Amino acid sequence: xxxxxxxxxxxxxxxxxxxxxxxxxxxxxxxxxxxxxxxxxxxxxxxxxxxxxxxxxxxxxxxxxxxxxxxxxxxxxxxxxxxxxxxxxxxxxxxxxxxxxxxxxxxxxxxxxxxxxxxxxxxxxxxxxxxxxxxxxxxxxxxxxxxxxxxxxxxxxxxxxxxxxxxxxxxxxxxxxxxxxxxxxxxxx
Length: 189
Fold this sequence. Notes:
- The chain has 189 residues and is mainly alpha-helical.
- The chain is built from eleven helices and two strands.
- A hairpin with a 6-residue loop joins strand 1 (2-7) and strand 2 (14-19).
């Protein structure tokens, strides 16, 4: 007989099946989790679908030429990656922010930006709030209040470009997570 354990909360739930003959089911569950964490890259999507990845790269290039500051864009990319729990993108965008001279304190507090006082300016706070509501669209429905708050800070074109950037990072996160892209820090270890 096999026993199924449900792990995590509603948003991160996954089941682990263990043989009922296992002497210590807890150990079996831990072993299964460890196996998951050490999974290697499933496939190289850059090599398999170069035209598709090039198309995403074109959108990335479009965002870079927008009127949004490069640091603001990187903060948004990192916040979206935090929400989606994408190790590859967390590693990449943390490194990018450090290269741009962003302070480690600001990067460390990004996840709790609402409680970080004036560490984040008005545009950053508005962009992060919009990134959160758009990334969690199934939960939030992107209510009028969220739109009005973002629109109060960003011009129409900026808000559209910001939303494209958020959508792009959500796509990149899903590619990296689905195919187990290896973060640079893990590859170096």
